[in-house]
Specification:
single chain; 21% strand; 48% helix; alpha/beta; 10 strands
């Protein structure tokens, strides 16, 4: 039995599986070592994961997580998992590798994450060979839900939205300037707050002002990220994440502008990761 974890800042999807399929699926709170210490991660695992596993212990754990971008951060997750599963072999990797494996399998391509935040890489079928850095919501995150929310809220505060649209936004979220600024500058998860406004933009996507923002969001992502990868027009450009999935029509429009071919667009990497690791298990058992 192996345990696969796909973790973001808001939720973690755990799958206990073997070569025959998935036997358990459990959701817990998000785990991001950029914001959480090992003891806090342990608390989530002990309170939300272990009771549902009912003492089942995996032989191997493959953990793909947001914020797992340095040895120190990865160690926080490894320590928490080792405490809960002392007999398990543990692999902790960045969610970008998880996205690449889920989207591309064993074939080359560009893999992109467009959810609350954004990231991308060039994948050769085995390894990530190039990565334009993700600079986070303050300096980057083009293409993401947080970036969309920042565009919308900035236009609202600068009085650049049509009156009807501004009123609808204000009433739906009970917005005040102080409330917005407190959430962005003083809360623990400002990017998550900003990304909540993507739902409003999805509902209003036919409004020309909103559509222009969505288009610009993806246009900046292609210009600053996808177009930097050598041969990006020669391999599929694949996407995972709610923003890519729910705004896929506009995403295709922008890709066409740059001569890119969009391959797979999915909301979650979990199913792709299951297929990837099932294939590995089959190969191992075959040998």
């Amino acid at each position: 039995m192996i345990l696969i974890a796909d973790s973001g800042s808001t939720k973690t999807d755990w799958r206990m599986m073997d070569a025959t399929g998935v036997h358990e699926q459990i959701f817990t709170a998000g785990i991001n070592p950029q914001y959480l210490e090992s003891i806090q991660i342990s608390s989530i695992i002990e309170a939300e994961l272990l009771p549902d596993l009912k003492e089942k212990s995996p032989s191997i754990i493959y953990y793909y997580g947001a914020g797992c971008s340095s040895p120190d951060r990865n160690l926080r997750v490894e320590q928490a998992l080792a405490k809960a599963f002392p007999a398990s072999e543990i692999h902790v990797d960045h969610d970008l590798l998880g996205a690449a494996r889920a989207l591309c399998g064993h074939k080359p391509g560009v893999a992109c994450i467009l959810g609350t935040g954004s990231n991308s890489c060039l994948y050769d079928g085995k390894n990530i060979v190039d990565n334009v850095p993700s600079l986070g919501f303050l300096m980057g995150d083009e293409g993401s839900g947080a970036y969309l929310g920042k565009m919308l809220i900035r236009a609202y505060l600068y009085r650049e939205l049509p009156e009807e649209l501004a009123t609808s936004l204000k009433n739906r979220y009970h917005l005040t300037k102080d409330g917005i600024l407190d959430a962005v500058y003083y809360s623990d998860m400002p990017s998550t707050y900003l990304a909540t406004f993507a739902k409003f933009m999805s509902d209003k996507r036919k409004d020309p002002v909103i559509h222009a923002m969505i288009y610009q969001n993806f246009d900046e992502f292609f210009e600053r990220h996808v177009c930097k990868y050598k041969g990006f027009t020669e391999v599929p450009v694949n996407f995972v994440g709610s923003i890519a999935f729910h705004f896929s029509e506009t995403l295709h429009q922008v890709a066409k502008k740059y001569g890119a071919h969009i391959g797979t667009v999915i909301t979650s990497p979990s199913e792709g990761l299951i297929a990837y690791h099932q294939e590995l298990l089959a190969q191992t058992q075959g040998n």
